[in-house]
Design brief:
heterodimer, A: alpha+beta, about 30% helix, about 25% strand, B: about 260 residues, mainly beta, 8-stranded antiparallel beta barrel, elongated
Chain lengths: ~550, ~260
Amino acid sequence: MSPQIRRVILCFALVTLPWAGPLVAQHARVARIAPGSLTELRAWDARVDSMLNTGELRVRITREDTLMPGRSHQRADQFYRGVRVWGADVSRQLSGGQTISVFGVLYERIDIETAPALSTLDAKAAIEKIAGAKLGEAREPELVVLPIENSERFALAYTERVLSRRGLYIYFIDARTGALLLELNDLKTQASAVGRGVGVLGDEKKISTQTDAGAFRTWDELRPPDIRTYDMKGNLALTEAFLNGEASIPFSEIARDSDNNWSDGAVVDAHVYSGWTYDYFFKRHNRRGLDNNNIRIVSLVHPVRRQDIFSQPDEIVGLYYVNAFYAGGGVLVYGEGLPAGITLVDGSTVDFLAGGLDVVAHELTHGVTDFSSSLIYQNESGALNESFSDMMGTSVEFFFQPTGSGQRQADYQLAEDVWRPSGLRSMSNPASLGDPDHYSRRFTGTADNGGVHINSGIPNQAFYLAIEGGTNRTSGVAVSGVGATNREQIEKVFYRAFTQMLPANANFSTARAATIQAARDLYGAGGAVERAVTQAWTAVGVN
Amino acid sequence: MPNVERRMPKRIWLVTMGVTLGLLTAAVPARAQGTWPGRATISFNVGIQSSARTFSDQITFPLYLEQATHDINYATESELFFDGGAIVRLWGNLGAGVAVSRYTDDTVATVEGRLPHPFHFNQPRTIEGETPEIRRRETATHLQIAWMAAPTDRVRFIISGGPTWIQAEQGVVTEVRYTEAYPFDEATFRDVDRVLEEETGTGFNVGVDVIWAFSKNVGVGGLLRYTRATADLAPAEGRSIELELGGLQAGGGIRILF
């Protein structure tokens, strides 16, 4: 039985609506064509030819066989007095003028008046009312003969497919009264799948994908939010148009793989690490995504091509090659990195930015901040914004990776897996990468929005000391941290303060007060956690 | 590999030996061991079949790019058996006969599963569950060559042995169902699908039947029989369960003497 026929039968099984009226014929018969012998085949072949001559069958499409040269497949729909019989068609395989096979479903003894009482416009209005959705001007319901399941009867009906909030449905209404005869859910749902991916650093990981027309796409259906990763294939114009709201990205740009074994490391890591970061916030902080309401997470990778770097202006290199950013509304862009053999002036190499778990988590945390405290991105509030992304980025590393200093190991360096050898920032020793570790050394210029990526070193150092303990190199003040095994306490304190307590224009002192309050709220006043947080801020000179 | 373990409850040994010794000592040693006075005996017994064993099976299947496993641990218990048979004396004290016994046990199987995580390699979730009413039924046919003796007028005994065929019906778990949901760190056992598999195993039986004759044609007897056979079930391609069948049967019942 052909898939087409199976579908018809399946659809008919869903018929549940009452039926009555004058446009009904009795005692029809369904003929299911599946010849069991050459004689039967010849008889059906002749019958099909005859029906094609009389117009009872009309060829819909003829296609060449893609597997067997010389063969073709002809599909013809059944018509009754010029009206298509819904779900009745014939598929005939031909070779050199000879019929090889015939399958189909035809209805016999149809006796029905085919002049509708409703005009097409009336029918369209009736369907729109039933579906609760408007149809475009070009859309016209089709008049069909609708076989009624299990009744040997037919109805003259108008049919149209409508997408509404309920889903995608095919509606059939009585061509005489406008009453709903049948509705079929026509939404072809896609199935989630788990594939195998190799990341930027060559590590193998599972990737949550979706099957789509025999292939797989980076569309995570296992997690509550819609997490998609688009492969922009270097189409910077489309990337920028999308980011500016001037264009949408077609579904076809979601990264695709034929066998669910993914080898594009940037695609793999952007997609997988987005999921891991969602998991971290869910499991550690009971937060449901960036907006705590499972907003869609859209990652864009390969916004430019590496090989085009030499023809790109500096601002494009700075934005789309050696950078990653949160673009608002759950959209993230990951830079392409530098071609092999090309380094920054300090000798650093830069790989695909999506290859760093802390990078992905850092950018997604900007989304969390965006939907919570909305820390203004300049001066101290901007540094707090950056610092909170560093804190959570590092925390996600410790949540999923073993502690250590090698690749794919959790540490207090930022972006070290892709920005080699040292990373962008250090929380344990900010000064090692040129950032201040004490308020007295803060940057007071206007560059970098008032040093948002520079002064973040100060709260970063406070976060580090509150967990690990130690002595601030500038002040010499020692801190009794809660210990690595209790890092969850400090993560929760800073998460609570930064997402629920801080105002948008907070400064470091506000952050100190808010985190101390959060420590008291969560772990009691005067306890080890409050002590660690207080000492840590004091050690970095924030009072 | 299936794991099979046997145990024979001590109480069954004690009861059986007690019955046997009691009947023997109750007999009047009026004369030396003599020829069986009749031609045949028919017996009906009920008793305990000692079949306390465990065995296991494993279902494996690919899940989220890794191998998922369900270890199914079955246990059979000692339960009642029913037995009927006849032995005909052929020549001197030698006879031959046949007996049929049936043993049924409804017990519990436990499931321990390891399910790969959809997001991470090497982080399996474990599930545990129990499924009741796993049936084991053994219908055994025992062919017997018998040594029949009557040491007194009232006491007789039959020592017998021979091949045994045991038709086994065994409930087998074919699929374990579970539920999982985001964040997928846990999965929960739900229920199982199972089928009743049948297989026949060939083995042996040895036994002794001690009879106390009330009259010329009627008596009571105590039966102690050990029977054993094995059968291999193949509930699915690549899976095999070795069943150990039979056990020690200790019981008693009516004897009709001819």
